[in-house]
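Appendix B. Chain record.
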Amino acid sequence: MNDMILILNYSDEYSMQIARRLRAEQVYAKVLPGGTTAEEVRSMQPRGVILSGESDGCGGCFDAGILDLDIPVLAIGHAAHLLLSAMGGASAGEAIRDRKVAIQYEKSLLFTGVADGERYVGSAMTLMLPADVKVIASAGACTMAFESESRRQYGVQFELERNDLEGSAMLKNFARDICGCSAWWSVDAALSIAERALGNAAQSGSTAVCAVSGGVDSTVAALLAHRAFGEKMIAVFLDTGLMRAGEAESIRARFEALGIPLRCVDRSGEILDHLAHKRSTAEKQAVVSGVLHEEMLRQSAAISGDKLLVLGTNYDDFLETGSSAGQWTQSGMATAEPLMELLKEEIREIAVRLGLDEAFASRKPFPALGLGARILGEITAERLFALRTAEEIFHEEICEAGLERKLYKYFPILAEGESGSGMEMILLRAVTLSGSQLVPARLPYDLVERTVQRIMNDCPQIARVFYDQTPTQLGRETFF
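Structure tokens predicted for this chain:
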């Protein structure tokens, strides 16, 4: 499959934005590390390459040999400086910083249909272009974009903005008109890829064992596995005791309605014992993942014949943490990750296409560590009860106000109060997404007031409730 665009990643959030926009234009895009070599790119034979890096810097090393592959290249943001350097040019001091500028576009295939106008620019450098490279966009005396038309190589200093129609048009021009990509990627195509992967696996006669968390990814993976494997399939849900109120019961009911056999294993008491005196997130994750790993191996061992472990890893997960298949293969388990090529938004669409409830398909992701990810310090039964109660109250108030879909995320965090007091604090967190920035939402005062009052009434150990208004970068939020 070479009818695609490769995105060399020097900035996770911006690269994922580009991939999402290209896929929305039905162009298949795949994100790879910035240090991907020219030989690796040659072997994949993509129609085009995009270098993506945020304006304040990027990591990784660009292999200039990619420019000799006769494949169109577009560099966006700080990556434009990497491209220019490889082309024989240079960038000097900063010319523009954190302000809106009026940009004029010259005639270029890259900017077909893009009109002059204002854009916010985080950072733009003074550029020195080689003789065969021309300016195709400028803001006053500052070069904002350049091209080598004969080599089909383009650099753009500005980043894409949220709801950026001109930016989307630029990407579409590059992928469709310059690179010659066809519009073949769709939800149907994504679903076919996932079904084909499991259909081929089912031919082996193995029994599919699906690890399910109750989220949309693992549920879709289990539903597809059930369709492919039929009776030779079992789903396993591990109740860690760290779920939201009523979550385990809801998962049982959902799988029963889908007609998918589900084994529910309650090891919450054991996990809580193992979590005693564990305070760091890494320690807590090690406990929960260790029990999950052990339980899935135990459940698989109880099934005769060959087994295939089906995981709900999506493409966003893969880019953030990599595939989890390695730890299972080391334990002798064959694995399948049918959703590996799919973005979260695509899986949500597939969920609805498969008949799952739209409200379920659009649910906010929940941490793998569950409520444990939002408890600062040791996890105890009493602290879990307090946070679970606060989470249920906050969720009810947000939904009652009709804000659930408007917010990117919302949740409470439990923190320790004054040392030795035995009292606790709740921090309410609700954010919207602007580019890669998480912006605190302006919740109605009466909503916050009701939430605080209800938490104080229902959780006697909570002494204070705060609303957290700290803006953060998306990748630096620790409670997701």
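Further analysis of this model is presented in Appendix C.
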